[in-house]
Amino acid sequence: MKKRIAFLGAGKMAEGILSAMESADGVIMAEKIPARRKELERKYGVETTDSLAEAAKGAKIVFLCVRPQDADAVAAEVAPFLKKSQTVVSIVAGKTLAKLRERIGAVPALVRVMPNLALRAKAGMCAICAEKTTPESSVKAVGKILGAAGETIVLDEKDFDAVTALSGSGPAYFAYMEEAMAEAGEALGLSRVAARLLSRQTMYGTAKFLKESGMETRPFIEGVCTKGGTTAAGMAFLAKGPFKRAVCATLAAAAKRSKELA
Length: 262
Ligand SMILES: NC(=O)c1ccc[n+]([C@@H]2O[C@H](COP(=O)([O-])OP(=O)(O)OC[C@H]3O[C@@H](n4cnc5c(N)ncnc54)[C@H](OP(=O)(O)O)[C@@H]3O)[C@@H](O)[C@H]2O)c1
Description:
- The chain is an alpha/beta fold and 262 residues long.
- It has two domains: 5-160, NAD(P)-binding Rossmann-like Domain (Rossmann fold, 3-Layer(aba) Sandwich), CATH 3.40.50; 170-261, ProC C-terminal domain-like (ProC C-terminal domain-like fold), CATH 1.10.3730.
- Helix content is 55%, strand content 14%.
- The chain has helices at 12-20, 34-44, 52-56, 68-78, 97-104, 136-147, 160-168, 170-187, 192-213, 217-224, 230-240, 243-261, and strands at 5-8, 27-30, 47-49, 61-64, 87-90, 109-114, 124-130, 150-154.
- α1 (12-20) links the parallel β1 and β2.
- It starts with a strand and ends with a helix.
- The chain binds NADP nicotinamide-adenine-dinucleotide phosphate.
């Protein structure tokens, strides 16, 4: 089998990218945990190994998918095995291309991606940036793989702390909103099961409609707010409260942490 794509670290995000790919042919995943390797072999028929070097050697594209605290050590371990024809794609939060370059050596092309967990539902958001010297063909090849898992956008690296705070961490914040809505529904007397269903389907339906229609949020909100009606009463409260300030502060805290992780 000719190796095309290697994953270093086979956790949640690596599985998300893999599951969006048409075929696991030519994919090899390096992972420490034996039970996890078995699970991926069984689920996707993918080749796995406990050796980072074995996975990285000869793969055209090498995804670095370990947690930030492991990234430097993993990059340094595979660096001696990488060639000029290979592209390393880091999805590690906060890790800049310059820092990664220090560890991975001068040889391979480098691409940095900030994905999000929604790629497991093929509805992910991946921001992509690259060094000036990275061949356009490498960026395109990475965009093609990730495009199967949702939307992609090419941005400057200077935007990546903000991207990380918004779309990278965003799924947790939207899920928190869903949880808050469900809890509020329960407080109004709904059963837990009913409140969860109502909250989840409303979040899903709203996101689906906005995405498919391309409608701006403001006219959408106004459309739901009948004058003197229930939504208008709720929105009047929401809009004068600290909600937007809290969202701003939340993203600022995440962006600050992204800077620290570099
Ligand atoms: N989760 C998100 O929503 C999200 C969003 C955007 C970006 N990211 C980035 O994506 C990266 C991966 O996140 P994740 O959520 O997929 O993490 P994860 O589920 O913890 O996966 C990382 C995997 O890599 C394994 N690993 C660590 N060192 C290894 C080594 N030397 N050799 C082989 N395998 C090794 C870990 O095993 P052990 O557990 O045994 O260490 C773990 O199974 C992170 O850098 C994160 O910043 C995540």
